[in-house]
Amino acid sequence: MKIPCVYMRGGTSKGAMFQKKDLPEDKGLWDDIFLKVMGGPDPKQIDGLGGTVSSNNKILIVSASTQAGVDIEYLVAQVVVGEPVVDYSANCGNMTSAVGPFAISQGMVQAEEPITKVRMLNLNTNKVIEEFVPTKDGIVKENGDCAIAGIDGTGAELKINFLNPAGAKTGKLFPTGKATDEILVEGLGVISVSVIDISNVFVFVHSTDVDIKGDELPAKLNSDKKFLETIECIRGTVAQKIGLIDRWQDAAARTAGSPKLVILALPMDYTDIAGRTVNKEDMDICVRVVSVGAVHKASPLTGATAIGGAAFIKNCIMENYLKGTKLTGSLRIGHPSGVMKVYVDYEDVAGEIHFKGIAGQRTSRKIMEGYVYIRD
Amino acid sequence: MFKEVPCTLFRGGTSKGLFFLQSDLPEDRELWPEMLLSLMGSPDHLQIDGLGGAVATASKVAIVSGADKDSYDVDYLFAQVSVDKPIVSYKGNCGNMCSAVGPYAIEVGLVKTTDPITTVRIHNVNTDKIIYTYVPTQNNKVLYEGDFEIAGVPGSSACIKMAFQNPSGSVTGSLLPTGNVVDSINIPDFGTIEISFVDSSNPLAFIRAADIGMKGHELPNAIDSNAELMALLEKIRGVAAVKLGFITDYTDSRTKSPTVPKLAMVSAPQQYITANGREIRQESYDILCRMMSMQKTHKNYALTGAMCTVSAAIIKGTIVNQLARKGFDPEKLLIGHPGGIMQAGVKCEAKPDGSIDVNWAIGYRTARMLMRGTAFYRTSEK
Q: Given A9, A44, A368, which is nearest B374 (Cβ)?
């Protein structure tokens, strides 16, 4: 059996893109097809397209939308390596960036020069996301000067705009009710933090309060037991304060993925994971993001949106780092793998900030187009 | 900028890779490495910006062209694209990828089909060797479905028979490089051990598993985690490498001759359990083998090693010949290995002096077309 398929990279993931109309109407057949496409559940995936890790086992199913204000709908299927399992529980920010270019090149969305805006509904999370895709002569532009961490070379900049991202987890931009809190952390004393819910709950802390310079690489920080314990204490204290758990000691067991932590430092020169020099002139803020018990090798897209938003919040502890920096709707974030730019679209409503959308940068490219063949 | 090229992704045996018609590639071969690296997404340990599967066995390329020759139908150049280094190597053939060359040649119309088996005669450009492959076809199309299983690939597929011409003396120049069917060799701090040296498709040194205190059915994990045994095995391999003239000091084997010879520990058939827990009955195969490859126990058995093992099995007096089940089929010797049973065979002829020559080594693989279409790659060309 053969199915039309486009194999694409989106950000730092890659996977197989399908038009929904090319798949069987009976969704009960999909899991089996997706496993066969990737060569699962064989952990070596030698009989399929899969490359044995989760980031290259993504399947996207794209269709035109009949909903008002939405161009296309897409569903992300994650083939679980080594198991006969296909998971639909989460969106993938990386592969989201490939959806717009796919939809345009498949003729599902009319291209507009120089940038085509694609409004897409992610069916895993039921969230609408906008993507801005550079196009020329009706064709998606892949060449450009945008570099993203984890990908050699540059490509055309795709902007992934998460609409109304505030309060995604708790329903409130400030889960504690304030932009900055003084909290008592066991073994550390009283420290200033900002607890912000944009895409998820993020706790912003000063690098000096957790006793790091701010340019350390993940490998070093993740092997520092004392550092990780301190981080976990702060995370747990905040999780308890905002009611996610009853006892701060339970944070790792009960709420590992939220809140996440952002450690702030002033721009500085440092060496990134790949050994390249990152210049302080190229960033507005230097961060290390802690996600699920470890320092992230770059910054998750959700983290970047939160950091971008926080930069425009009055009385957030980030203000100390941005004095004298003129921000016009975007922020350059220095992280362990390079610099990521986020675009923040906000308005002031009676003294309160309202985020209409926060966009991250990705690049994407078509790797192969044709038919994928699976066993009957 | 980006360019496009017609491309087919195939699994061949336990490898997968990209197949191209040479006429679709730039005429200037200097441009190939950059192109193939970009197509695979190399160098990057995840190969996220290309088609590579982040391991060497999923980062291979076959470049095929029709050949207007009496003795073969297609030319096939194999290229190994490094996953994490900017290197494309044309050294050696890959038997696994070679098994997909026939199906590919038929799919792209280079070879006319003759149901039910289409013979595709391949010239491997890397080694300048001829390989005949026998591809099942039906209604003039490649038949991929079948009931043949190979270790390392889930499920079953149609069996592709591959015959490699003149495998004798691949590295050393002769089938029996020492001139003997068995040599008694002194291993420092161990004593004397009998070794059979046979060079067919690849040079192998065969020893009896029992001679070094092994039962013969040990699994790779057990062997690899036994440091004392591993040291002895590498020492034997080192002494064998000296005997074959590859190195002068046996302690240099790891660094100066890591790939040849391969070492096989051989036993008569016995009941055993495979690495994934399957029971293999004593009467279901002909010879029990374990093979060392690159200082590790092979999880299954190398195709070239299997073809060498059959060659050894048909030569009267070798250790393999002594231990193999009597009356085995030389075209289908059944080798019991840690992952299951592999078939391999030979076709040979007796020479006037009574010795034999192996004309063909026969292996069996399966292949499947995974994706076909157009691939896109970055190029610095304008």
A: A368
Query: Between chain A and chain B, how many beta carbons pairs sit less than 8 Å apart?
Result: 108
Question: How far A38 CA sits from the closest chain B CA (Å)?
Answer: 9
A12, A143, A369 member nearest B48 (Cβ): A12
The structural domains of chain B, with segments of one domain joined by +, span 2-159+367-378, 183-359
d(CA B71, CA B123): 9
B49: nearest CA partner in chain A: A9
8 Å CB contact of A142 and B2: yes
SS3 A358: strand
Closest-CA residue in chain A for B53?
A51
CB contact under 8 A, B14 and A46: yes
Q: Which among B236, B227, B180 is positioned nearest to B208, based on CA atoms?
A: B236
Interface of A with B (CB under 8 A): 5, 7, 9, 12-14, 42, 44-53, 55-56, 142-143, 150-153, 365-373, 375-376
Which of A278, A286, A376 lies closest to A325, judged by CA?
Answer: A286
Q: Report the run of H or E that residue B219 belongs to, with start and end.
A: none
Q: Do the Cβ atoms of A38 and A59 come closer than 8 Å?
A: yes
All domains in chain A, ordered by first residue: 2-141 (3.10.310.10), 181-354 (3.10.310.10)
Q: Which amino acid is at A159?
A: K
Residues recorded for chain B: 382
Q: Buried b / exposed e across A254-273, counting CB within 10 Å, b at 16+?
A: ebeebbbbbbbbbbeebebb
Taking an 8 Å cut-off on Cβ atoms, the answer to whether B1 and A369 are in contact is no
Q: What is the DSSP string of A75-100?
A: EEEEEETTTTEEE-S---HHHHHHHH
Residues B122, B97: Cα–Cα separation, whole Å: 12
Least Cα separation, residue A90 to chain B (angstroms): 20
A375 and B145 in contact by Cβ < 8 A?
yes
Fold designation for B183-359: Diaminopimelate Epimerase; Chain A, domain 1 (3.10.310)
Determine phi and psi for A118, rounding to 5 degrees: -115, 120
Locate the chain A residue with the closest alpha carbon to B154. A42
Query: Facing residues of B347 across strands?
Result: B360
Distance from CA of A217 to the nearest CA of B (A): 19
* Token duo for residue B257: 């001759």
Peptide bond between residue B167 and the one before it cis (omega within 30 degrees of 0):
no
- Cα separation, A376 vs A360, whole angstroms: 41
Interhelix angle B303-314/B95-107, rounded to 10 degrees, is 110
CATH 3.10.310.10 fits B2-159+367-378, yes or no: yes
B327's tokens: 């009356």
Query: pLDDT tens digits for chain A (376 residues)?
Result: 999 999 999 999 999 999 999 999 999 999 999 999 999 899 999 999 999 888 899 999 999 999 999 999 999 999 999 899 999 988 888 999 999 999 999 999 999 999 999 999 999 888 899 999 999 999 999 999 998 888 888 999 999 999 999 998 899 999 999 999 999 999 999 999 999 999 889 999 999 999 999 999 999 999 999 999 999 999 999 999 999 999 999 998 888 888 999 999 999 999 998 888 999 999 999 999 998 888 998 888 889 999 999 999 999 999 999 998 889 899 999 999 999 999 999 999 998 999 999 999 999 999 999 999 999 8
B14 contacts in A (CB within 8 Å)?
44, 46
pTM for this prediction: 0.86
